[in-house]
Structures are given as structure tokens and as C-alpha cells.
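Researcher: Sit down with what I've pasted below and flag anything odd:
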Amino acid sequence: MEKLYTAVVTATGGRDGHIKSSDGIIDLEMKKPKALGGEDGYANPELLFAGAWGSCYLGALGSVGKRDGVDVTGATTEVHISFNRESETSYFLSAELHVHIPGLDLAKTQKLADAAHKGCPYSKATRGNIDVKIIAV
């Protein structure tokens, strides 16, 4: 394994806390979302995870498109990260990635979307750990 890059972010205070990256690019106050008893207008772990996964996934989709000779310019991935209750003290995440490739039919989009899911580092990190649905839209 060759380590190419390491992101460093320090978190304090949990869901009602603060995160700051070592380079200062990320410097956010964190709050629970309103649905979990917090307030609107703040970042939360699920938003950040969805954004990071979506960005990384589109990179993998671009690689798959290039490999297969398919133009994926303008593709979008809408990532839904759900915070779910299993019991009074146990919670888990689930995810849906809604993938759109302009000008491509749903069957071909689904094929490319599934291939990108196999190669995306975030998809690999979550594989077998959370319920994930890849949906061509």
C-alpha cells in the first residue's frame, strides 16, 4: 500500500461540537439536525459523510466512464445518508446513491453506477457494514 494523502480533522464536543481540519479549510460548528433534537443551519456528520461520499463516487464514475468509453460529463449523485434507530441505545446508518448521467438510459446508467460503486473508496469502506442502494435516476 502506498499512502498518497492523509486528511487530518480534529473533532471536539461530539454532535454538538466543532470540527477543524489541520489546513484550516474546514472549520465548522456541528449541531444535531432538527430531526434529532438539534437545530437547523449547522453541519452534522451525516451531511459531511454524504458530501464526501458523493464527491468520491463521482470520481469513480468518471474512471468507469472513461474505461467504457462513455461520456459522464454532467453526472450527479444525490447521496441520502439516514440515521436509523435499532433500539433505545443502538443506531445505524443506511445509504442511497441516486445516480444520474445526462443522455444515458436507465439500464446503462445503472450498469455504470454499479461498476463505480465497486471501485469507489467510500463504497469499499462501507461495503458489508451498512445497507446501500445504488439507484439510476
In short: The mean pLDDT is 97. Strands lie at 9-12, 18-21, 27-29, 76-87, 90-100, 131-136. The domain at 45-136 is CATH 3.30.300.20 (GMP Synthetase; Chain A, domain 3).
